[in-house]
Target: phosphatidylinositol-3,4-bisphosphate 4-phosphatase
Amino acid sequence: MEIKEEGTSEEGQHFLPTAQANDTGDFQFTSIQKTPDEPQLEFILGAVQLVPTHSDPCKDLVAPVRDRKLNTLVQISVIHPAEQSLTRYSSTEIVEGTRDPLFLTGVTFPSEYPIYEETKIKLTVYDVKDKSHDTVRTSVLPEHKDPPPEVGRSFLGYASFKVGELLKSKEKLLALSLRTSDGGKVVGIIEVSVVKMGEIEDGGADHITTEVQGQKCALVCECTAPESVSGKDNLPFLNAVLKNPVCKLYRFPTSDNKWMRIREQMSESILSFHIPKELISLHIKEDLCRNQEIKELGELSPHWDNLRKNVLSHCDQMVNMYQDILTELSKETGSSFKSSSSKGEKTLEFVPVNLHLQRMHVHSPHLKDALYDVITVGAPAAHFQGFKNGGLRKLLHRFETERRNTGYQFIYYSPENTAKAKEVLSNINQLQPLIATHADLLLNSASQHSPDSLKSSLKMLSEKTELFVHAFKDQLVRSALLALYTARPGGVLKKPPSPKSNTEESSPQGQLPPMRRQDSIPHHSDYDEEEWDRVWASVGKSLNCIIAMVDRLIEGDVGSEGSGGHSKDGEKDPLPADSITCHPREDWYEQLYPLILTLKDCMGEVVNRAKQSLTFVLLQELAYSLPQCLMLTLRRDIVFSQALAGLVCGFIIKLHTSLRDPAFLEQLQTVGLIVQYEGLLSTYSDEIGMLEDMAVGISDLKKVAFKIIEAKSNDVLPVITGRREHYVVEVKLPARMFESLPLQIKEGQLLHVYPVLFNVGINEQQTLAERFGDVSLQESINQENFELLKEYYKMFMEKMPPDYISHFQEQNDLKGLLENLHQNIQAKKRKNVEIMWLAATICRKLNGIRFTCCKSAKDRTSMSVTLEQCSILRDEHQLHKDFFIRALDCMRREGCRIENVLKNIKCRKYAFNMLQLMAFPKYYRPPEGTYGKADT
Ligand SMILES: O=P(O)(O)O[C@H]1[C@H](O)[C@@H](O)[C@H](O)[C@H](O)[C@@H]1OP(=O)(O)O
Model:
């Protein structure tokens, strides 16, 4: 078969478009048998032996090779059977200075990849003369031809095989001849052997030598029979949220000279787009409702009416803007990835940048298989809005300070009071229809004349009505009522009233100057302060009447004489005895009907007044500094949306991977989950603003609770309910999985998350900040979040069962780690990356969800996650110490993260220059040839 090179494709794990992949034309191809969700095929390249001296292939092939040892790499290409063209798929790392290289990077084809027994794989071996030029290539080189010398590599030989030949071969191993470009001369041998993740290499001891820093090291591949991970990993449901996986395979030696196998996987998520769309819809609903309530505030005096008109016109514009963004996003059907280069696009503002699951699956001898997940994502930040004036942390503080000190145009309510007003309004909106439904159910029970059903309907009605009455037990409602009264035509007070509430506003951290305020609700001769009490109390009273009536009806029904009604709390019924009399059984409905009507009327009156007064509070919040205050809300929504998309993705993945772990479920239910963010932003220039956005976005995640529900259809995407101060994310699980959950979770218990952020800037900008700028932002974030982490730990220790805790303490010295983290934060050392390592370790030990972020989650993030992966292999899986750097280089050179760079900027180069790298902490520098000037 003639092999045609694919003209323009860049090396990488690009999948053929589905239509193309499945289009096998007239041919019938043989699928590879495998368990679902397992890779289709994985193989490693055993020893490559190039024929030495007198028949030295290199002598004929590449003259300069004679004078030095080879630096070899194998490039793997795929020839789809229906086509005649060849697609570059992946490469091994470069093994330096040997003629019999041993490659640590293997090849894996994920389950989605269109590969058949008839698919041909081509292996091309190169000698890399100049590493710094090698991976900087951006186009495909012609096969069978020496690359131009300036590219820095020379062709040594090639071999090819059909996938079916490998699968059917004895021991699933092929020893293939490497040939010259014309296919004539044999220049060496290359071994290919199939890998199954559930198996360590078969057979007896197989001694392979390789050179490590000048030393020969004996590596022994031994047979063991470890537990298969497929049970744990077999989560087809996850495919509904994870898309386009990129998979890489490595084998690394352990300290006792055995092999461990590592599968690295990176997937994007459709939640990147789904969550923003859900959230924007929710904001639109919330804002439309608020705008309507502002319109329905009733008659206001001219000053307030003008203010209202102004607010409404801006708020309507804002809703239109959200609607436009939603329309634009809805056009992106099926999208699951926003690239770093799109981070400033207005229509994609709510979408997180470069969100991925970065997973490492370790299969090592004698140890249980392990999965390590990190969500990598660009720091949640409002790139389109820009950072000229800083980010949310600063902007919100400045806005609040100014608002507090600007007097008479409007009334100042603290953020806490405004939040409370929103909460009460939301409670009212939920409770009023609920009470009405329960009241109707009570009437229904009455018409059925069923005492039991009457009692249980009454119980529900009482509970909800008590909640309703309780919702207004706040001074804020009173002060808002008075404020609104004074804003009505003719209701002008000498000074605007100032709110007084149980949570009287105090300056956060004592930073805000005291505001002009009055100590009590101002007196107004026409204002009847007790009127509200009477209206409010009428709801309780009418409930008591209903309770008393139900008592009497039931008592009358069982034949006993009416003995005077008792309210639920045992008090004598407030109604006169003759107003509630015992009637014959058929009158139950008629007896209760007028009382229910009264309850509904009273409730309506309370709702009407409270809604208007609290909406008036919201009007004050909106009135100050239009349209800036709305832009601030927009900015906060944008940042939150990006943060939430990541969180939901992390939560769902965690839930799926830990569903069979009872301790995890217990923790989820009783304590909640820690969510740890590693930030790599510098505290210099624009990144200060990003960090300020990120800190608020992550802290806002506290407002999110999760609820797990059973999926009733194939639509398993999460649903968001609630409002800005309190969101509930409903995660759907298929019946089989849902059934395995603890009862409380199945009953809809809300599950909480505890986000923490630790940031350490590592690049050259951070050097500038340390020398000439200010690092206080980073210091205070780390200090504040340390306190939050400590609180979580305390809660964990208190709430988890004692048996679990004693075992946990034996295994982990969390106290020591926390102490160490604290000391490192206090130490104020420059670029103290120890802070990130400790925080990540603590998070893993606490079974939390890990995130790593930098501006784009592309370059610095890639350095950090690969370092974390190799550190885990060293600390938890006995990675041979001599191979630490080599493993790190393999992952950075040919692993998932270089593919991440490629998919973001269409170029396989980390965007660092030499000067930048000199400023990086040592282990954050990528290998030679993988970085350089890139158009980001
Ligand atoms: O993924 P990042 O580390 O945020 O990418 C940075 C990179 O670190 C830096 O060296 C380079 O100059 C660019 O600013 C990268 O950011 P982009 O957002 O432009 O990809």
Notes: The longest strand covers residues 242-253. Residues 340, 763, 854-861, 911-912, 916, 936 surround LIAWHYBZ (CB under 6 Å). The radius of gyration is 34 Å.
